[in-house]
Write a structure and sequence with these properties.
mainly alpha; 122 residues; two-stranded antiparallel ribbon; 4 helices; globular
């Protein structure tokens, strides 16, 4: 993507060690990883991209099949950096649930490992 499709790093030629050390421009965070811990937006991504037509499916828990499938978001800005989502408070979960038009309990389930409180329904 960096070299060919978007071509924002056409002159980039990195060896494996440089790639491992993330010396390239941009980032590719993926749902379920520390910067985007909720897997559920993968459903919207798959719908937009019509991934099923390419033979890729999502399980109930948003795992991709076949298992060798990958997805992510590309950000090409030279100052893009990976980050981790920290612990979330109830008001943040409520705002997230509202933005996604889902129940707070569902957002709490999707982001359980990031909660900084014990949900009332537990």
């Amino acid at each position: 993507v960096r070299l060919t499709h978007w071509g924002y790093a056409k002159e980039e030629f990195l060896d494996n060690e440089s790639l491992i050390k993330e010396k390239y421009q941009g980032i590719r965070p993926a749902f379920g990883y520390p910067a985007c811990p909720d897997h559920s937006p993968k459903r919207l991504l798959f719908d937009i991209l019509q991934a099923e037509e390419a033979g890729i499916q999502l399980t109930e828990s948003f795992a991709m099949y076949p298992a060798s499938s990958v997805s992510g978001m590309y950000f090409s800005h030279p100052e893009s950096k990976y980050f981790n989502v920290g612990k979330l408070e109830k008001d943040q979960i409520e705002s997230y649930a509202k933005a996604l038009n889902i129940q707070v309990e569902q957002a709490e389930k999707f982001l359980q490992s990031n909660l900084n409180y014990i949900p009332e329904n537990d």
